[in-house]
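Q: Can someone sanity-check these two? First one:
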Amino acid sequence: MRLHFTKKEFTKRKEKVLTKMNEQNIDALLMFRQESMYWLTGYDTFGYVFFQSLILDKKGNIILLTRAPDLRQAQNTSNIEDIRIWVDKDGSNPTDDLKEILDELDLKGKNLGIEYEAYGLTGRNAIRLNKSLENYCSIEDKSELITKLRVIKSNEEIEYVRKAAYLADLALDEVWKYAKAGVSESKILAEMNRVIFDGGGDYPANEFIIGSGQNALLCRYQAEKQILKQQDQLTIEWAGTYRHYHSAMFRTIPIGKPDSKHHKMHEACVEALKNCESKLKPGNKIGEVFDIHAKTFDDLGFNKARMNACGYSLGATFSPNWMDWPMLYTGNPYEIKPGNVFFMHMILMDSENGLAMNLGETYLVTENGNERLGKQKLDLVIL
């Protein structure tokens, strides 16, 4: 299988990680985040739901410890040459296999960084790991070491993000075609996913959110699929996905005659989004982006309907969700840099009146400001 990035790109990434490890006096990094493994080696799997770890020592040695079903997965999708298998059996403890690898790399008594914040490292396995390494070496939580490198996208990555944005736009075109009274939410989802896959896209890291009526006020996917009514409201959050890179969008669409408040809520969302755009530029803190979002909604009387965060970074992520670090909330000190990709969502959920209005777009931070990657209009479309 052809790797999704050039050899030069992977070499640069590895050098960046080794530099950070040296700066932080880390002799080896134990990765459990699938995002880290994919970014560093190309390894593409959902096998992280079981115990697996990618070990990188300061000499540059890379060893993957995983289960037998992922042996060929790693061989076919990554540049990893040294793949070890732990065996499924009653009472097996893969941390014992991991410790043998650490012995082989002469890491006893050394400083190890561990990605604890990982869906692939369950609480039980983290306890096992800590117990196995007790009195063996020094350990530090280095969950953000690679994450902070991934947050700035390379030119090769930006190409994939742009492709994902193109696919997200195609999906919205299908919404305009099918979001009408008498059509099921299932049909809309099916057509959105069809054009993404037809365009060469991938499964997203989490389900698309879709809901009408009262379900339009939900910010998460749920299993009920309704038929759109003559007068209704439809909320959809989705992402185009390409090589696991995401570009998300968010809309609430009135069906039939909209409530008069829908117009005011949409105007507020557009104003908030434009104000956030003005703050999304290099040198600013992402907490400042949220603050202008909150001030805009609060000044317009929507304090009770808004959220306490207004977006997050996007990139190559795996299930269960496409949200990446960092998140846009008040006081977040992360300094915006060129190459950042952020999804900014303006969410208003008015429970008192049973009304929703949402507007979300993905942005690439440039040298002097930002670029909205989606090409669709921000107008309120009534179907």
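And here is the second, same format, sequence then tokens:
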Amino acid sequence: MFDQSGCWAILYSANENNYHLTNNRAQMKFSTFIAFPEMFMPKLSKPHVLLPVLCLLAGLLTSPLLAAEEVNVYSARKEDLIKPLLDDFSKQTGITVNLVTGKEEALLQRLQSEGANTPADVLLTSDAGRLAAARQAGVLQAVQSAALAKHIPAAYRDPEGYWYGLSVRARPIIYAKDRVKSAQLSTYEDLAVPQWRDKICVRSSDSIYNQSLVAGMIAHHGEAKTEAWAKGLVANFARPPKGGDRDQIKAVAAGECDVTLANTYYLGGMVNSPDPAEQAAAAKVAVFWPDAKTTGVHVNVSGAGVTAHTHNRDNALKLLEFLASDLAQRWYADVNNEYPVNPAIPPSATLESWGTFKADTLNVAKLGELNAAAVRLMDRAGWK
């Protein structure tokens, strides 16, 4: 039977937030309705008038006969980069996916503040550093699956199963075709030599991508050697760090600098952009795969984990398995210009055009473990 407290919960939500029900999704669980009112409820001028209706709907929504299978996702990935896949998952399984998108830090803070009352079942985010931070914050739980173990190499997942990489991105050297020859390039370490004085553009030390790159170097070379490298790199900056990865690529194309570091999907997005200016900038640069004879190119992941307080654990695990499936991996490659985490799935034609490379085999979980050390080191090196 319907608990009257549910009626008062809806009335409270309506009065406090000026919301009302306009979308009667009778198959949506009441817990999701309360947790995600913004999905269903525009403004209401006289919420008390609809109290009987609200109570009736609350009764329907809480009825076990009408409760549908669902999974609630907090995603730091933009909606257009993930929703088509989630829609496919719903079509294949009949499980409704309720999606909330936001910034990485904001979603982590939301999970922490909601605690055991969170409606979220899955956290989707980018970079192993952020995934590790979510584990350290206690908002993820360990899950194991034969399908996940089969499709996702050990280097791209948490060793204890707290999160799983779902796509791979490399961070190579991007250089100006008309001013730099590939023979002049070799390793990340070489970017710190005087030859590159006033010729390098990079993002700031606030970038998780740069933090993870430095963390990887600490893992391979130790803090002392990495700090010396970072100081040399800073000395070669053509300008103070500013902007995102696309801005660095555009700066190289415009002649502000000769070399930068950027994640591959940013360049892929520019190559395939509807904006002629981005296409033109991308045409002026080329990709160099560093450290081919040593540790390999720095790689990272976007990934997901099951939340610590999920109420739909089985559905959350099904979603992770779907995102690691061949269908989803091909979508990541063809649409997002990311490398599939599943080595059996080929990359897109754009990515293949840049050639193959030796990827660093370091478990990306190590990048999260060393993030704090990397941030401190970059600060000491004067990397703003």
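A (reply): Looked at the second one. The two ends are 60 Å apart (CA to CA). The first strand starts at residue 70 and ends at 75.
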